[in-house]
Specification:
This protein starts with a helix and ends with a helix. The protein has two domains: 227 residues, Up-down Bundle (Growth Hormone, Chain: A); 135 residues, no CATH class. Helices cover 73% and strands 0% of the residues. By secondary structure, it is mainly α. Helix 3 packs antiparallel against helix 13. It is built from 15 helices and no strands.
Length: 477
Amino acid sequence: MDSQAEGPEGRLLRQGQSEGEGEEFQRNINRESEDVDGIESQSRPLLTPVETHTTINSDNEDGEEPKDGVKWWKRPSIIILLPPFVLYAMALGAAAVPRVNMVFALVCQDYLNRKEREATNGDFTPIRLVLGADNPECEIPEIGARAATFTLYMNIITGILSAITSPRLGQYSDRMGRRMFLILGSFGACLCEVTLILCLKYPEYFSHWFLLLASAFEGIVGAFTLILALVHSYASDCTSFAKRSSAFSLFHGFLFLGIAIGPAIGGFALEKTDDIAVVFYGVIGVHVVFISYILLILPESLSKEKMELANEKFAEERRKSAGSVSWLRSAMGVVNVFKPLNVLWPEEGGNLTKIRTNMILLAAIDFVMFGVGFGSITVILLYSKVEFHWTTKFASYFTSFVNASRVIGLFVILPLLTRFFRKKPRPGDPVGGCDNLDTLIIRGALSMEVLGTLFFVVARDSPVTDNSKFLDKTFAV
C-alpha cells in the first residue's frame, strides 16, 4: 500500500541512486506518460467529460522556448497549417463556378455536334461554340438537363471512390505521417485540373467524357474529403484535448472564408482576361504552392514514436486476425466502407443510449444536409444559367456572396446566440448532450433551409434568388 501511495515520484527517488540518474528516469517516465495521454485522447468518447491534459505536441502556452530547443516554426502547430489551408479553400471556391460552366459548354458542344450529324437536308444550322466563353445558344432546358445528369455521374464517381479510399488513407496516415497524404490529396486534385484544361483546350482529342476520368482522380486520392480529414487529424495531433474543438471551429471558419473569397477572385480574373482557362491555371499554381509548402515548411505532427506504436498495433491486429479470420473475410474487411461508422456507436462512457441515439441522428442529418447542400450547388448554377442567363463572372460573384453569408452566420450570428442565450453549466452538472438552445438552432436552421429552397422554386428574377440564397446559407450553418 505504501509503495502504491508514493506514486512515480517516490519510486523515482528510490530507484535513482544519484540526482543525475533520478532526472534521467523522470524524463523517461514523462515521455511514456505523454505517449499514453496522446493515445488515450483519441479513444475517449466525444460527449463524455474528460480532464484537461496536454499532448506531446501541444503549444507552449507561456510563450517560452521549449526545453528541447526546437524553434517554434519547426514544431507542429495549427498556425503553420492555416496559410496553405486557406489557399486551398480559395482555390476550391475559385474553380467551382468555372468548372460547372465548362462542363455545361462541353456537354452543349457534344449535343450540337450530335444534332448536326443527325440532321438531314439542311434542317440544322451548324453552331460553333467558343469554349470557355458564355454561349447563349446553349442556354436551353435540354442542354441544362444533360449537363445536370453528367455532373451527377461525376459526383457519383468521386463520392463512391472517395468513400472507399479516404478512410483507408486516413488510417495509413496514422502509421506513415500526415504530410505525405496531404500532398497526395493535393496532387490528385491537380491532376483533375490538368484534365479539365486538356478537355477545354483540345476538345477534338479529349471529349467531355474524359471529365469522368478527372472525377476518378479526385475520388481515388480523396482530394477534398481526405485533405479536410487530415487537417482535423493534424489539429488533433498538435493541440491539447481541451483546445481541440476550438481548433476544429477555426479550420471550418477559414474553410468557409476561403470558399467565400475564392469565387470573387475567379470572377475578377475572368473580368480582366475573359479566359476561363486562367482560373484553372491559377488553381494548379495554388496546388503547386500547397505541395511545396507541405514539403519544405510544414513539420510532421506525428512523432516517430507514435508512428512506430501505430505500426506495432496494426501488426498485432493483423497477427490476431490471421489465425481467427478467413482470407475472404480479411479481404472484405479491407474494402469495408462502413467500418469507420463504429465511432457512432461508442462502447464506453455514461448515458450510452442517449449518446448513441444523438450521434446516429446527427450523422443522418449531416448526411442529408451535406448531400443536399453540395449536390444542389451545381443544379442551382445550371438552373440560373438557363433561367436567368447568368454569366460565369456574375455566378462567381454570386457564389462569393452566398458563402460570405455563411461566414456571417458562423462568426457573427451563432456566437451572439451562444453568448446571450446559452445557460452556463454549474460545476458538477452531468454532460447531457445538446441543450435546448442547440435543438432550437438546428430546427431553425432546417426551417430556413426549407424556406430558402422554396424561394428558388417560385423565383422568376435574380433579386428573389439572391435573397433566398442569402437566407438559406446564413441560417443553415
